[in-house]
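Homework help board

Subject: predicted structure for assignment chain

Our instructor gave us this sequence and asked us to write out the predicted structure in token form, then describe one feature. I got the tokens but I'm not sure how to describe them. Can anyone check?
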Amino acid sequence: MRVVTTDAGLGRIEDGAVALLDTAFPNVGAVLEQDGSLRGLQSCAVRRRIPLDEATLLAPLGRPRAVWGIGLNYLSKAARTGRGLPEQPILYLAASSGVPAPGAQVEIPQSVTEPDYEGEIAVVVGRRLHQAAESEVWPAIAGITAANDMTARDVMRTTGTPALAKSYPGFTPLGPSICTPDDLEDRHGIRVRTRVNGELVQDDTSDGMIFPVTDLLSRLSRFAALEPGDVVLTGTPAGTGQDRACFLAHGDEVRVEVDGVLPLVTRIVRPADASQRDNRLTEPVS
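My token output:
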């Protein structure tokens, strides 16, 4: 099942259309808080159907309670950086206020000089996970979506703090739809691709992770309780702007494609600096 949150309510994607559901839940996050699963939406009655391209899609989870991320979790990324494989996951929390609506423009602050993209598979927790065994992880996962775990590389370098480099408003776009695990063809080989202005720059599968989904969430749950609606970003493969020495610029479009979900599109905006604004104000009117 593929689920979306729209301005007209929750819906299922069916045959290229959104089947709007007869439910009072405002978003997927609210469903998970009460039910711990999306299965109940499968049998929910349909109020009406609208074409997918006419639907206004909102952030499917609303504002997640917690967004966890992991650094250096793909073999391809480790090989590109020349670093050894980590013995433990490199974990961090990003501010949930950084999650925008799907397709929203992301404004890069003037102070950030090296804004970067990171296409990722995002895992959405359904049931509480605490000190969980690996075998308990997939049954507790509500679904997956796409993520663009944007990073200010210059801020990362100067502060050494991922939470600061990744928590600017809009820096954690999440996909417009969520795919439940039963709808995945191969949950151990989920493909993630990233395109910048149409050029394919990242292409890998979850089989290339250093810490696979079950191992990652199990380890994380030894220390923190993962609650319904929490999001775990599972790392990015090689091909980021950092790898290519090519950072994001005004007008760039980043498209992250993850198996089973709608593509996540992020459009980059660079505001004019103060001197440029002042010049425009003094230009003669033609």
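Reply (TA_rk): Your tokens look well-formed. For the description, you could write something like this. The helical segments are 28-35, 75-81, 137-140, 153-159, 162-166, 213-221, 241-244, 274-282. That's the kind of observation they're looking for.
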